[in-house]
Amino acid sequence: MSKPPTKILLGLSGGVDSAVAAILLKKQGYQVETAYIECWSEPGCRAEGDRRDALQIALQLNLPFQVLDFKKPYREKVMQYFLDEYQAGRTPNPDVMCNKIIKFGLFYDWAMKRGYDAIATGHYADTDGQCLYIPKDTAKDQTYFLYEIKEAQLARVLFPLAELTKLEVRKIAEQAKLPVANKKDSVGICFVGDINIPKFLKKNLGENPGEIVDKQGRVVGQHRGLWFHTIGQRHGFVIDKKKYAKLHAEFDKSELPALYVIAKNQTANQLVIGPKQATEVREFLVDKLQLINLTEQELLKQTKPKVRIRNIGKLVDCSIIKQLDSFQIKLNQPLEGIAAGQSAVFYTSDQPNKCLGGAIIF
Fold it and tell me: Which fold has domain 280-361?
């Protein structure tokens, strides 16, 4: 008697990626069931349409379908974190938190408790059951958002799209006549979508006006609240250009350089601005280190490790140096817009690049 197919619970989002993941898993002989994870249902969000699309996909592929209601923990643990970080002057990474708390937290645990052998998602990532790797389609790589996955989970997680490009995924969906074959990729916050973040922050945090200053601390404008701004931001603030020009004789008065947010002084409630080169950083500190299948000492002994400071950002050679209760990251080339609260994710230099884990910039 042959061994029965492995029982898989696939997170079906209503998009083309998880839909094609379902097709691939079914073809590979897995016993596939699907679940739509419901986390957000505010007016204007995409949840209702996505849920309908997910149900339609499941019906078309003849797969069991269910809806998991995680709205309360999502609101309390992901969106509250999002607001708290902005209020504290940092730039949060809600997609990292969403994967940690929801997809590889509540969803994973829910599946394991009910006897599923593994979960699957439509993420662009790869695993051998022990480590996490950058997938074939490096332009769609999502390992940056997945670095907090626990190594023990990788043996029970499937990423069916690991060896496919986005173009190939859409082609499979078209051949299967899936209604979402040409559906636009989701953007914005995990499970929420492309919301207007300034409006969302104003609604939840209000405004807290303060001064906009140059690097020397001289006032050149007013801001409405530090949480409306992040390091490296070029737009979204107004200054007295004539005053800035008068204070900075080194610039041509007729053509000031583009100005960027270079720091936030939380204590004084001041937004610090300056020219683009002032946003460049060659070293920074991180804490809250999370590693995947290696020890801290093994990380520090890595030959030519690479770091990424934003999703799909360039992989930059770096040195990782242990401090008392943090780590100093020294870059081989400068990077712009390194913001406290964001994640720095580490990789090996060999191919395919292995994701070693990550930490929080402060």
Answer: Elongation Factor Tu (Ef-tu); domain 3 (2.40.30)
Contacts (Cβ under 8 Å, ≥6 apart) of 2:
none
The answer to whether 183 and 46 are in contact (CB under 8 A) is no
Q: Which helix (H) or strand (E) holds 263?
A: strand 259-265
Residues classed as catalytic: 98, 190
Q: Which of 352, 348, 321, 316 is nearest to 334 (CA)?
A: 316
H or E element in which residue 60 lies: helix 47-60
Q: In the chain, what are the domain boundaries?
A: 7-197, 208-278, 280-361
pTM for the model stands at 0.92
Three-class DSSP category at 269? coil
Rounded to an integer, what distance in angstroms lies between the CA atom of residue 213 and that of residue 227?
A: 16
Q: How far is CA 230 from CA 144, 165, 279, in A?
A: 19, 32, 11
Tokens of 292: 């995947």
CA atoms within 13 A on the CB side of 172: 19
Q: Which has the closest alpha carbon to 161: 188, 123, 114?
A: 123
Distances (CA, A) of 167 to 27, 137, 319: 19, 9, 36
CATH number of 7-197: 3.40.50.620
- Cβ atoms of residues 201 and 228 within 8 Å: yes
- pLDDT string in tens for the chain (362-residue length): 345 569 999 999 999 999 999 999 999 999 999 999 999 876 656 778 899 999 999 999 999 999 999 999 999 999 999 999 999 999 999 999 999 999 999 999 999 999 999 999 999 999 999 999 999 999 999 999 999 999 999 999 999 999 999 999 999 999 999 999 999 887 667 656 667 899 999 999 999 999 999 999 999 999 999 999 999 999 899 999 889 988 988 876 667 889 999 999 999 999 999 999 999 999 999 999 999 999 999 999 999 999 999 998 899 999 999 999 999 999 999 999 999 999 999 999 998 899 999 999 99
